[in-house]
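Now for one specimen:
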Amino acid sequence: MTFAQLLDQVGGMGRFQVLNVLLLCFPMVLMAAHNLLQNFTAAVPGHHCRTGINSTCGGSNITEGADCRDPLRAFIPTDGNQVLQKCRRFVTTQWHFLEPNSTELERTEAELEPCLDGWTYDGQVFTSTIVTEWDLVCDFRTLQQMAQSIYMAGVLVGAVAFGGLSDKFGRKALLIWSCLQMAVSGSCAAFAPSFTAYCIFRFLSGMALSGIGLNCVSLSVEWTPMHSRATISMVTGYSYSVGQFILAGVAYAIRDWRWLQLAVSFPYFAFFLYGWWFTESARWYATAGKLDQALKELQKVARINGQKEQGQKLSLEVLKASLQKEAPSAKSNFTAADLVRSPVVRRVTCCLCFVWFSTSFAYYGLAMDLQNFGVSVYLIQVIFGAVDIPAKLIAFIVICYFGRRITQALTLILAGLSIAGNIFVPQDMQILRTVFAVFGKGCLAASFNCVFLYTGELYPTVIRQTGMGFGNTMARVGGIVAPLVRMTGEYSPSLPLLIYGAAPIISGIAACFLPETLNMPLPDTIEDVENQNLEQQKGDEGCKGTPSHQDDIFLDMRMFKDPRPLENTGKGDGAAVDPAKSS
């Protein structure tokens, strides 16, 4: 008996699994809000140098005093479109520039200086942002991108740290800690007295976000029967999409960055409190050698699922006999080196490197550039969230009927082609450019949905969190690099789009070399991964005559195996696939 069969014995996809996934979705909803928060808290309003005329025009609010526009031309130079420059002002007031007969030559010869007295900001859209709080414009504009990169660096460090720690100390403990860390650091960022303090708290929030994402996915996948994993992946993916809608609505209602920061952080105190209810993964207990704890959790799940009698049939002796492969793994210490130690796992790790990096790289290249679409930043945020609904639904159907591999490759290649396609669309065709960008973002969202499920299925239990952490590390590297690529637009406007488009296409090709996991049980040991790959290769060789139905034929072949455990044969997990669960 394998762990998958034990799950079926205690109720399969029962009441416990539904409630468990529902409660895990709530922390994941606000993950999107934190990832994309700086689209609003670090937005750059219209601005120009502060001048003495502001005292007669309503202080720093330049939107109410339309009569200020003409007098301001005596203090601030204009560009070719008669728009006030943002970073320079006249050394002396040029009142004669307001006269109709003033010449362009006079304007260009006037002496200029930086904004020594600060800036005046347009408060019509954003009441307050970190840009207006600490004047992150002109010579200091790179600090805005630095804040986002520091946050992504925190997510990267969290992926490395929490991935290994959760394999060592368990999923539940690290999830509870991550929720508390997010609540505290996110709330402290809202009251940060300086830009430096703000960046420190955002770094800690990024770390916590990785811990929340990794452990929510693991707890949902490891308690879910094989035939329901794709459905659960879609549900958790949609929770992230819902978070994008919530962010747009909350940001529209709360225009002050401090209150907005607090609004998306404070709910994690509630998640921390009910997180103690979560049930630790029995899979993890088994691989850690804590079979008595695994037994208690399985019996608890059976009781919640209305299968109390089936749970009582389980005993420590039955569990030891059934999970004889998981218990010995506790005697070995697994490290990140195990991600590249065996041939199949090494190939999986290399391919997933490309997939994780490119998905995140292109995703944040699009999602963190909302102000450049020429429409309301709130509207484009809603559109970017809305496109996830059909994209992830289509991906779910393809995942269930055609497999993970083709879904992963297809979403990445289509995303790359749509992003690169904007190279050939003129700048004045904003609607068509937005359509291409929205389609690409939808494909990348579907790719994210697939890769979370796919990674959890490809890595065995003993190194699953380490593998997930490594994948998230590559994703965060992509998130850090993405803003830097936008700077290449100074050399060629098409260069960022070319880079953003090429990376997913290359990764889509790399995804074609990953093993298929459709209708395959979750591997628990590294040996399981190697054996499953051998079985899959044998199935592929036996089904060359009908390649379009290879997975179904291979599954049928497995159904007719001896249902008894295969001991000391080295052939897979030693159990047949239940035909009822494989359909």
Observations:
- Residues 54-69, 543-583 have pLDDT under 50 and may be disordered.
